[in-house]
Amino acid sequence: MKKKVDPVVDEAIETLNMKDGPTRRRLIEGAGLFSATAAASALIAACTSSSSSSASSTSSSGSASSTSSGNPTGGVFPKTPGWKFWFVNHADTNEFFTPTKYGYSDAAALLGLPTPQWGGSASSSFTEMISFMNTAISAKADGIALAQISNTAFTGVVSNAMSGGIPVLTYNADGIYANGVAEIGSNRLAYVGQALYLSGQAMGEQIKTLVPGGGHIVIFIATVGTGNIQPRFDGAKVVLGSSYQIDEVATSTVDATELSTEKSYMLGHKGTLKGAFAVDSGSTANLAAALSGAGLSIPAGGFDTDPRTLAALSSGKLKFSIFQDPYLQGFLPVLYLYLYNLSGTQIAPPDTDTGLTVLTPSNVSQVLKNSRFQGGSSAQQYLTRPSGAISQPPATTST
Fold it and tell me: 3-class SS at 98?
């Protein structure tokens, strides 16, 4: 009986134009090729095996740079050292970053690198984050990805890392915005994450549609002033203008506190409140429960794809949530740091917007399936793309 070939393997064979032979047959018939990562791992081994003789001759001829011992990489890439990258985070126990961790793990596995080191602070403590980053510098990290939630706190430590030859990227947060102008505050190489101020403006447009004409609204925020979420509030406020009475209410980073804070505020403003919104994952996830607890039925929406947010979108209790793709915020920094090191800095990492997708009750079904990409499942799986037309409005922005 003909064996079923994993789609990733089949695509790789076609892409690399593998002719029939032992390497190709091992790749197709290998034991347990059931997931994208397993297929990629087998492909890495196969590619390394099939190209080892040519690589050896190239190296011995002196026409290519010599490489240190390390884990093999896929495709035509040479062997490299086992580069170890570090991720410095401001909410390192928050489930929002589960897809980010899957993203960097998958990228490292694909490239034959050790899994990056994760840490920082659970409560946006600059001191704790800087301490963890200094540990990375002392360990001679091969690259650092930093969630830079301040435009002043990390100036020195980023400079120290870069001066010591350690490339630094930022992800998820990249300083602050002042009057719509970015104030980054470090000499990092590039940023990978959502365009935060623009995402706030997009939120403002959603609010204007849901609460036309103005009125009293609340925008909940976990920590006022931090660079990962404050720009969203600022962007929304500019779009909404003076017709709206906007209360900015801090909820903290503790889930139970977020819910109680939101419910308490709603109970105290039931008579005038026309809409309730949030600029961070946790505050958004608690909106539906807070509204129910306060006995309110008003427009609400926010950010990200916490399972509670998705459930509330599906039921119509939330009207929108803006998605920023945290998986890519882990995957792409690893890829960029790898290419930067591999190319001898010839390939400089680009600033990358990981997206601004507005999810609504009408289109949320596309992200409901549990996966590593959303953080709902640790299993490696191939999610088949929906058949039929691809629904996408005309593009209005570009780089």
Answer: helix
Residue closest to 355 by CA, chosen among 173, 199, 122: 199
Using DSSP, state whether 150 is helix, strand or coil.
coil
pLDDT digits 0-9 by tens, 15-46? 455 555 545 554 445 444 444 444 445 455 54
CA dist., res. 122 & res. 326, Å (int): 17
Greatest C-alpha distance within the chain: 81
| Together in a domain, 159 and 95 | yes
- pTM of the full predicted structure? 0.79
User: Distance (Å, rounded) from C-alpha 285 to C-alpha 309?
Assistant: 5
How far apart CA 81 and CA 83 sit, in angstroms, is: 6
CB 101 within 8 A of CB 329: no
Look up the domain containing 257 and give its range: 196-323
Identify whether residues 101 and 187 lie together within a single domain. yes
Instruction: Say yes or no: 201 and 316 in one domain.
Output: yes
* Predicted confidence (pLDDT) per residue in 248-284, tens digit: 999 998 888 999 999 999 999 999 999 999 999 999 9
Identify whether residues 336 and 188 lie together within a single domain. Answer: yes
Among 262, 280, 269, 277, CA closest to 205 = 277
Pair (55, 103) in one structural domain: no
Residue pair 194/231 in contact (Cβ under 8 Å)? The answer is: no
